[in-house]
């Protein structure tokens, strides 16, 4: 059984991978005897991760940190400094490329930040954008202005705002939607796939037809990375 760990800037997520199936994992109660390998990725704070890796070490379990490379099994990274691309972005791209081969895709990971990455049908990552996530967009405004206020009950909606919380929340949503539309312009193919992941992935997916939400996209990418990196 594999333990997969993804550390983002908001939270650490862990799942178990057994016989091609993802199972939930309680990090406070891990059956270390059953774990054969730990595969992890980290773009956030690593204290909790360090504790888990130390526990794995006491059980003599191999731990592998996923890394970005310029090429993996035909998938090519747009960054020249590949080490600067967030590993979560690379893992989401690996998943998109592996799950939907020969398909042009826009991969959106909407968490603390919203990342938008463009992949052509030939496996070339064309690049992408980093935006503040929806919560960061709204909190940066409420924290840096006198009169802009939020309301926890106000939903994000694709509508004009007629009060302050609606203007604030809906502004963050449409800014993000507009960036996704812009990303599509970078693909020649009309039939590109739009794949969403992350805490706000499902909300955003609801605004785009012919799109997919896969909450396990980065986790699946960890597993694919391990299998592909082992081969190469
Ligand atoms: N149903 C949800 N579950 C988890 N996070 C959510 C949910 N809906 C919105 N969010 C927001 O998504 C962000 C966390 O997403 P996540 O992809 O876990 O982030 P990260 O990878 O940066 O740790 C937070 O801003 C959180 O408020
Ligand atoms: C952009 C990110 C902060 C997104 O992280 P997340 O929202 O998943 O916590 C992360 O992918 C990162 O730190 N990237 C490094 C810079 C880059 O990708 O160019
Ligand atoms: K993200």
TrEMBL record:
Q: Which EC number(s) does the record attach to this protein? A: 2.7.1.33
- Where is the protein situated, by its record's location annotation? Cytoplasm
Give binding positions for K(+). Answer: 109
So, what pathway does this thing act in?
Cofactor biosynthesis; coenzyme A biosynthesis; CoA from (R)-pantothenate: step 1/5
Highest taxon of the lineage:
Bacteria
- The record's active-site residues are 88
Task: Give the record's keywords alphabetically.
Answer: ATP-binding, Coenzyme A biosynthesis, Cytoplasm, Kinase, Metal-binding, Nucleotide-binding, Potassium, Transferase
The Gene Ontology terms for molecular function here are: kinase activity
Q: Which residues bind substrate?
A: 79, 86-89, 164
One Pfam family it belongs to: Pan_kinase
Enzymatic reactions? (R)-pantothenate + ATP = (R)-4'-phosphopantothenate + ADP + H(+)
Catalytic class of the enzyme: transferase
Residues annotated to bind ATP: 6-13, 112
Q: How is the cofactor bound?
A: A monovalent cation. Ammonium or potassium.
What cofactors does the UniProt entry give for this protein? K(+); NH4(+)
Entry keyword Transferase: yes
Oligomeric and partner information: Homodimer.
Name the family.
Answer: Belongs to the type III pantothenate kinase family.
Which HAMAP family has this protein been placed in?
A: Pantothen_kinase_3
Q: What does this protein do?
A: Catalyzes the phosphorylation of pantothenate (Pan), the first step in CoA biosynthesis.
State the protein's name.
Answer: Type III pantothenate kinase
- What species is this protein from? Pseudoalteromonas issachenkonii
Which gene specifies this protein's sequence? coaX
């Amino acid at each position: 059984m594999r333990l997969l760990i993804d550390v983002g800037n908001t939270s650490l997520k862990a799942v178990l991978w057994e016989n091609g199936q993802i199972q939930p994992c309680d990090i406070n109660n891990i059956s270390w005897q059953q774990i054969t390998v730990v595969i992890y990725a980290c773009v956030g704070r690593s204290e909790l991760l360090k504790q888990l890796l130390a526990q794995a070490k006491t059980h003599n379990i191999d731990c592998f940190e996923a890394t970005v490379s310029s090429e993996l099994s035909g998938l090519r990274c747009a960054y020249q400094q590949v080490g600067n691309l967030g590993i979560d972005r690379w893992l989401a791209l690996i998943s998109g490329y592996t799950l939907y081969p020969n398909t042009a895709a826009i991969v959106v990971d909407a968490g603390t930040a919203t990342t938008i990455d463009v992949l052509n049908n030939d496996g070339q990552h064309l690049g992408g954008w980093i935006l503040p996530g929806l919560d960061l967009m709204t909190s940066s405004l409420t924290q840096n202005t006198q009169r802009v206020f939020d309301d926890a009950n106000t939903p994000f909606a694709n509508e004009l705002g007629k009060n302050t919380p609606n203007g604030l929340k809906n502004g963050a949503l449409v800014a993000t939607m507009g960036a996704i539309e812009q990303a599509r312009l970078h693909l020649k193919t009309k039939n590109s796939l739009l794949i969403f992941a992350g805490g706000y992935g499902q909300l955003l997916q609801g605004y785009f037809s012919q799109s997919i939400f896969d909450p396990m996209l980065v986790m699946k990418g960890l597993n694919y990375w391990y299998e592909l990196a082992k081969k190469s």
